[in-house]
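A quick aside before the break. I want you to see a complete sequence-to-structure record at least once, exactly as it would be stored in a machine-readable document. Don't worry about memorizing anything.
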Amino acid sequence: MIAATSAEARERRNVNVPAIQLDQAIVLLGRQTGASIGLRDRRVATLKVRAVNGKLDPAQALATMLRDSGAMARQVAPGVFVVEAAAPMPTNRPRAAFRPAPPPEPSEAMGDIIVTAAKYDRRLRDLPGMAAIVQGRDLSFAESGLGSDAIEARVASVASTHLGAGRNKLFIRGVADSSFTGPTQSTVGQYWGDTRINYSAPDPSLRLYDVRSVEVLEGPQGTLYGAGSLGGIIRIVPEVPGMGLASARAWSGLSATQHGKPGGDAGVIVNLPVSGDTLAIRGLAYGGIDGGYIDDRGRGLRDVNRVETIGGRATLRFSPSDDWTVDISGNYQRIAGDDAQYADRHDLSRSSALAQPYRNKYLLGEIVIAKDFGQARLVSSTGIVDQYVAERFDATPPGGLAKAYDQVSRIRMVSSETRLSHSGENGDGWVIGVSALSTITRQNRTFDRQFVQADEAVGAYELVAFPVVGPGGLVTVPFLTSDVVGVRNRVDEATLYGEATIVPLPWLSLTGGGRLTHSRLSGRALDRPEELEFRLDQEAQGQRTETRFLPSLAVSLRPADRITAFIRYQQGYRPGGLSVGTDIVQYYKGDEVETGEIGLRYAGTHRFDISLTLAHTRWRDIQADLIDTSGFPITANIGDGRITSAGVSAHWRPVPRLELQGAVYLNKSEVTTPTAALVAAYAADKSGPAQPHAAKRAGPSLPNVADASGLVRARYSAPFGNIGYFTLDAYARYVGQSRLGIGPVLGRPQGDTLDTGIELRFGDERRGLTVSLTNLLDEEGNRFALGSPFLMNGANQITPLRPRSIRIGFDASF
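That is the input. The structure line, written in tokens, reads:
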């Protein structure tokens, strides 16, 4: 088996090869480095080799890949290598009996960590900004099934609301606007490979099975990623089909939750070559059930908040030559929650008049075409996203008949980007690109009120029947249904962007760039009930256009070989749109941030590294969600603010098989110049400041910005008899106190929680048994102080951590 020879075979290239069988690994390595790599002894073909990730030449990559595998590489000519057994191998040795590769150990030859989210490959040590890389091989199947919660558990600067998987909003570095998912665009840009997966919709929490890496870039990232990257971006890089070798991996697990019901998960990954080294397909299917643990006293039900997730994806890779690849893929996921995740007192229970289910259906289709020119790389990606989110909230007034509020959001987005980039050997490089995006968001809303014969206030209501689960089982109850004003927003964008890094001196690099975006915004009210009175803001119809230029500048200094200091300035923005409340449809303006950041990074030997950062952000015309007089969340501009954040993260390997990780993040946020409406809201509330100027002086903090957060992780691997090795992974994450939202009604405390867990795995790369324990201290906490916005004034609402749980799982590779 021989990979193509290249004149640049001795150069250091970006290498990213997962821990797979040797015969498949050398094909990938040959494609990425241009080296010719052959097998002299076919009996070593099925050996499991180490993952390789970094900027390496072929000899370094092979040395790392084959370490302790029982095979060795010998260079027989420039750019030509032969892999053979390190010692004579018996001819009658069966394939299945090969000694499994031991767990990966740190190695000097692992090379530099490459940040591909920078759009032109950059070594982490050269990046003027803070980034966190989570390798897919470090995520267990139990963690991967958590979706975005697994990212939050591993990156201290990432935070989330906790309304429920498929309904949450993510935040990075304290840039948080509100607790609700409405027409506003997220402050975090989310990407699946090269395709944007989110705009003005909740985080789909795509499961992280079979991914190569997760990259988190702290923001703003306006130059490279445009609108909606105020806090930063999260980029998930999936595994791609492997040529020339069929393989499969399957897993399953059963879980039990203290004070709750059991659950489970299962899935399979299949890689199939279709035509030699030209065509291959990779597929994934998975499903899982999270058992409920919240009791409903009002309806006499136990463990009502069960969640079911199913999904799958498939990628077809066509590689007609060494420098061309075409990937066509589809991704589907459905999350169905039987009921809301909150409680109203500290015994994991609440009292509700009706069930509050929710659904999130997500569909992504994309095509990515890439061409490698040697000194430059061309990538063109086009994606289509369709997301459907349906939610029900309990809006029953105290002592009144059951009343439900239903909200359905439909989001359709088409995006396309083409870029040309170059990455130099000494840290220099450039990227230039064009992109277009069109997204339409529709939000329909309905009030459903229980009907009785004596009810005279029928008005515009329509009589329908709903199934309701009560203590006696499933019954059909008549409800009166009426549409509430909805909203439709559309955004069309066309963009030209570029960034370049030059290295005029060995110890100095300069980075500059800009992004020019022209946007067209349009919106209108939906389902306007003619019989109901409401106020229409004079700016709430029609369309408008915006043209923005976002610059970025950065300077990096390397006073010593392993030390990098940097200073960075960048901007970000979000366009405006329409928002609806009970009796108003109004326009809210676009907001923008500008951030100055300084940082220091020490990339020592493979045993220790540390990074520190200090950032200050000014935020103008902040878009946030408030609660109107009827309990509706409504989006408005609340004024200007500022955020100061500081973070430190470190990675230490005191002994070869032990890795320790720690991070601490501190945030301080403030609304420095609140709008007149916000000041009036505080003045009217008896629990708030007595005078309007007091609110201005008090400077309320931004929502969901924890004052402090931190995490520690420890990982230890060692041989374990004849079955392979065992790996112990333990963590603890603390999230400090924050506020639910802006304004007197939403100013409720939340956070101040500690989550802990441990996972133990026995086995090798082919098969393993896993035992996982989460929330070891069985802490309740309050991750999110919201269940239904219509009950904010009359009930305490807390979202506890999942109680102490255990999962026992098994995985096998074929």
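Two observations worth writing down. The chain has three domains: 13-110, 114-236, 237-356+364-813. The domain at 13-110 is CATH 3.55.50.30 (Phage tail protein beta-alpha-beta fold). We'll return to this after the break.
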